[in-house]
Design goal:
This protein has seven helices and 15 strands. By secondary structure, it is of the alpha/beta class. Strands 1-2-3-4-5-6-7 form a seven-stranded mixed sheet. The chain has a six-stranded mixed sheet with strand order 8-9-10-11-14-15. The chain has a two-stranded antiparallel sheet with strand order 12-13. Helix 6 packs antiparallel against helix 7. The longest helix is centred in the N-terminal third of the chain and has 13 residues. It starts with a strand and ends with a helix. Bound molecules: zinc ion.
Length: 236
Amino acid sequence: MFHKISENVYYTDHEEATDRPAMGYIKGDKYSLMVESGNSKANVNLFLKHLKENGLKEPDFVAISHSHWDHSYGLSYLNAVSIACDKTNALLREMAEWKWSENMLTEYVAEDKIPLFCEPHIRLEYPDLSEIKVKPADIEFKSEMTIDLGNQPCILKNVVSPHIDDCVIVYIPNEKVVFLGDSIYEELVRDQWIGHSDKLSQLIAELEKLDFTIAVEGHFAPKTKDELLVSLREKL
Ligand SMILES: [Zn+2]
């Protein structure tokens, strides 16, 4: 489902079976920005279908929150100019060299290049694994950048996160909305979720400073700022 969350911000629900993340769309006077590229061509096409049904144009830009497959493997299927932080792009450049087949996926999981948890989701999203195409983003930034969509600044920031080092949040001050990607979650190693409370504390401090009313996260429903901070402090 596709939801309007503020005057000019929309998001789609996450989807558990194939681990598709919540994805966003931000409209400015001149340009629009998609947040997350999704995990496949089918995921991208479904998102574009939602845009069309809601009278919204295809995005001019797409920013991804981190390098994990479910957030980044849709990049190859978008015409938008893509943006990622330098750490994400370094990881995507590496993955772009990988070959994909039944045997190779088994090997990547055995080598912990792909977490065991992700394997069934990848197989379900890609009945033909050779269709996986990974590419780095067109534009990369270090630590932080602002993109103005036309009276609609969006701040992309690489934050300290317990999940992975390349996590980027997208903050839209005029709409008081922030997209968190997976930044608030634990690190995934094989099928275990490993907490890092030092990093989580730093992230909580970062989020406390931000003026937002709604936070959209990767794999659960959006939360208000209060709900989010209460749930994060409980994890410490
Ligand atoms: Zn992730």
